[in-house]
Please model this.
Amino acid sequence: MNWDPLILTFELALTTTLVLLVVGIPLAYWLSKTRARIKPILETLVSMPLVLPPTVLGFYFLLAFSPNNAFGAWIDEWLGIPLVFSFAGLVLASVIYSLPFMVQPIQAGLSSLPPSLSEAAATMGKSASTQLFRILLPNIRKSLLTGIVLSFAHTVGEFGVVLMIGGNIPGKTRVASIAIYDEVEALNYAAANTYSLILFVLTFVLLLTVYLVNGGYLKRFWR
Amino acid sequence: MMKYFAGIFLLLFATIFLTGCREGRNHENTLRIAIASNLQYAVDSVVAGFEKEHEIICEVIPGSSGKLFAQIREGAPYDLFLSADMDYPEALFKEGRTIQKPEVFAYGALVLWTGRQNLKPSIEILASDSVRYIALANPRIAPFGRAAQETLVYYGMEEKVRDKMVYGESVAQANQFIQSGSAEVGFTSLSIVMSPAQRENGKWILIDTAAYQPLPHGAVLLQTGKPVKPAARQFYEYLFSGKGKEVLKNFGYSVHE
Amino acid sequence: MIEVRIHKELRSKGGDFSLDLELEIPEGQLITLYGPSGSGKTSLLRSLAGLLTPDRGRIARKEQVWFDSQKRTNLSPQKRNVGFVFQENALFPNMTVLGNLKFAQQKGSSHDLSEELIRDLDLQDLRDRYPDSLSGGQKQRVSLARALAQRPDILLLDEPLAALDAEMRLKLQEYILSSHRKFGLTTLMVSHDLAEIIKLSDLTVVMEKGRIRKTGTPREIFMERRLSGKFQFTGTLLELERERVITVASVLIGNHIIKVAAHPSEMEGLLPGDQVVVASKAFNPVIYKVDEQQ
Model:
């Protein structure tokens, strides 16, 4: 039993979720507050990965990340990180691919809070970031948990995008979903079954946690 | 409430009716041909010639030979299977999933291909710094991937380029990596770089046939649970006919004359 | 002195209207804003706090310009040092009562103001509770304490007592008045309750459709009939009982119900729920200290 694909999958999901927290919270905060005209356009873009086939994203990532392309070449040259066939590339692609799963719950959570909470904090002289971290986020813990778990689970389940730009390199881009596909094609059903079962159980537990916590079944542990 | 159920029934009938129509297309004159992805351009050409002569519609399903093999084993409704090797068709034959014993209709050839203007493809260059990624089809399921790996072993390059290899799920995806420039070079089929669509793109060299096991391509008529379609036999014969062989030769395949 | 001269086009559920205000607010006084809903009282408070940006005009306190549309000055709410008590209390659900107060308290305040306010406003029993577990009156008391914890120069109260029962109102009125005095605040409060206005405020501003109708002491405004009596109360008319020759009105004054009998003609046009003045024209009051034994 080769554990590498599973370990890699969780590394990818964890890194992606952390990056998404850093990127998604300010984006969701801005979207929940702004009345800018480009807001609907940005909201649409954020939601696109929900409906686009992953292969469309994968295809464009492959083109964009290629060193033949200005963007890919620039990243490659200035940061020294190639984006195709690399873990960094998978992280970037996954961040975009799972963006709606982080941004939408947080944005909805923030919008559901009465504006007077921020306003009260503002009159107390508190800056926007203090408002966000001391008042707003602590009051949307359920939305945060939903965003984190969904992003993580969605990244674990990612297949099409990784297939397009990963290159199936063991230990680098060969994540569990690809390994399963591979083992099935190689008629190695036992291995495919093991990977699949682990993913099945894990994602079940993750999602169950969200429903238990947000449904108030674990109130004693979650205030 | 009644209205609601009536609506549901209407929807159900509509669904059955529509899917029925779709299935209806699969009559005697439609063929489903599963092909190894390196054959795509060549078979498209063969199909075009065949369809001109017969009132038959061919649906071509490309994939890696291994994937198609697995699908056929699980009952995929294909009439013919054109594999990039003999092992998969032989295995199907042994399992009784074919009409007859598979036959070789062509031999493939391996090339090293680059989309980069400033690169001159060669075996040596694979180890150099100017090549960061080498694309090939997954050797576990694609015969051309296997041949590419044999080539690297033959030239004693395997260790040197181990970290550079990126695997497409089929030759088609390896092509994608090369064409998009994501991988500087890659191994693919001669038929790809000979195709009108790709002839102008990039540079390639033929790999010495001594470096890898031959790539016999096997064709076989599949058991579908129904009597074999006459159209399937017609296509099979066309493939082995002079016209079929002519097309295959144009794409760089060698055939039994 | 706070000078306000603002114009703002407002869109509300009841229709669009424009806010056109010119007002001078004397410092150190308790001012009430009175008027029907949709008359712009809340918008005025929000403009003062910097939560609403007027289209045109100027707001200045002493030497400091808070807003000037011509000079494109707009001081952020953070820099105005205004305490705001919201109608819906706006307590932070993730913090205890004490947490809410401490959050509001400015950094580096020398003594512990939060603890002092907890004592002043009788919040000792509630200090470690979360807002969700408090009653409406308790929430507003905490909300008031929190606004005071930031040591504001100006205290703005947007109908803080609207949803409370009579007893709770009276208690909170006391807290507002005593805090106003203790901290030497300039206080602006929106209220619909005449008794409350007359009891608390030094000055009343009557607003209607985005404009100021009248400004004056509550007595000048609400007791235009200039009763000759020397003793009067404002209260809420609870019910009218018609008897053969007279009508008896029950009036709630503070938390006492007082019955007043009069000729039916004098009671014409009155309906239960009306704010009324009960005055006595000639009487000789006696005054004595309440015996604590009693």
Q: What stands out?
A: Chain C has a mean pLDDT of 86. The two ends of chain C are 47 Å apart (CA to CA).
